[in-house]
Design goal:
D-Maltodextrin-Binding Protein, domain 2, Fructose-1,6-Bisphosphatase, Chain A, domain 1, 2 domains, binds 6-O-phosphono-alpha-D-fructofuranose, about 350 residues
């Protein structure tokens, strides 16, 4: 190996190990403005939240009181896991004394939480699902956290964060953390989708993939076929199609973040449609579907309710639900075509 070869390799490794999340945000914005610094600082604190949750998950089976249910039911009517509560509080704690985030809207909290010392100076709001896929926690399967950042509009005099009830184009950043064999943080601030891997030896998220592009088509369809007989006929038509045609494979983990991540990298479609009894579906718009739709569109994919782009949907409440069909452009379009066909008959 020539001398010239060796230093370059070393510099490359060193430079890559120094491409942390906060640095990457500033590189993406090509700016050191106050707003750029704010966003960089916010992402850095989200990374801290991810590290705290990842650490607890990695030892959950050994830590007294980490697993199992709290015995409470949340605003969604779902039984709350101890990890849901822990993760919810982690995201609040990492933003205390930050002057950045004044309000947090969470799947686990009926109303938005205001961090007193950050209001009203903090003009950013965090919308998040602290733990997505809670049913996987106690059996050590993949789960995630989903987040979106919006800028506060107006003074929120009523204290009900009504300005959040706007479409997904108001998101200035979105992302998720996947707690899997490795802990990954995927985010976008509107300049492409980028993936970081937590290096436990450094305690840092290090850049792994930049400008991720979802394939236009993929083999995976991801849905809970246990709901088959509750779906509209159009969705059943689609499922019959993929059953009868070669080249499709079913993958469903029970955690949206894990299923989404697979499709982001390999292509395909995730669908959680409405049912005849619950046409609005199960997934929540502001802190599940809209952030993932932001990412998927940034990656060249598509996200719809089946009839409308997810990013165009205006919620009437913080916890509004929508059907979700998200993934490769061609695969989402195929699902939509069955819905359009049935609408014509
Ligand atoms: P089902 C987890 O509770 C979640 O919100 C998503 O992460 C997941 O995709 C979905 O619900 C699973 O719902 O009805 O298939 O168990």
């Amino acid at each position: 190996m020539t001398d010239v070869g060796q230093p370059l390799a070393q510099e490359h490794t060193l430079d890559r190990d120094c491409t942390t999340l906060s640095r990457h945000v500033l590189e993406q914005l090509r700016s050191f403005s106050a707003e750029a610094q704010d966003l960089s600082a916010i992402m850095n604190r989200i990374a801290l939240a991810a590290k705290l949750i990842s650490r607890r998950l990695s030892r959950a089976g050994l830590v007294e009181g980490a697993l199992g249910f709290t015995g409470n039911v949340n605003v969604q009517g779902e039984s709350v896991k101890k990890m849901d509560l822990y993760a919810n509080d982690v995201f609040i704690s990492v933003f205390k004394q930050s002057g950045l985030i004044c309000r947090l809207a969470s799947e686990e909290m009926e109303k938005p939480y205001y961090i007193p010392e950050n209001c009203p100076i903090g003009r950013y709001t965090l919308l998040y699902d602290p733990i997505d896929g809670s049913s996987n926690i106690d059996v050590n399967l993949n789960i995630g956290s989903i987040f979106a950042i919006r800028k506060q509009e107006g003074d929120d005099i009523e204290g009900d964060a009504r300005d959040l009830l706007q479409d997904g184009h108001r998101q200035i950043a979105a992302g998720y953390i996947l707690y899997g064999p490795s802990t990954m943080l995927i985010y976008s601030i509107g300049t492409g989708v980028h993936a970081f891997v937590l290096d436990p030896s450094l305690g840092e998220f290090i850049l792994a993939n930049e400008n991720i592009q979802v394939p236009n088509h993929g083999p995976v369809y991801s849905t809970n076929e246990g709901n088959f007989w509750q779906w509209e006929e159009s969705i059943r038509d689609y499922i019959r199609y993929v059953h009868r045609h070669e080249g499709y494979t079913a993958r469903y983990s029970g955690a949206l973040v894990g299923d989404f991540h697979r499709i982001l990298f390999q292509g395909g479609v995730f669908l959680y449609p409405g049912t005849v009894k619950k046409p609005e579906g199960k997934l929540r718009l502001l802190y599940e579907s809209a952030p993932l739709a932001f990412l998927m569109e940034q990656a060249g994919g598509k996200a719809s309710t089946g009839t409308e782009s997810i990013l165009d949907v205006v919620p009437d409440a913080i916890h509004t639900r929508t059907p979700l069909i998200i993934g490769s452009k061609e695969d989402v379009a195929l699902v939509e075509s069955f819905i359009q066909e049935r609408a014509r008959t």
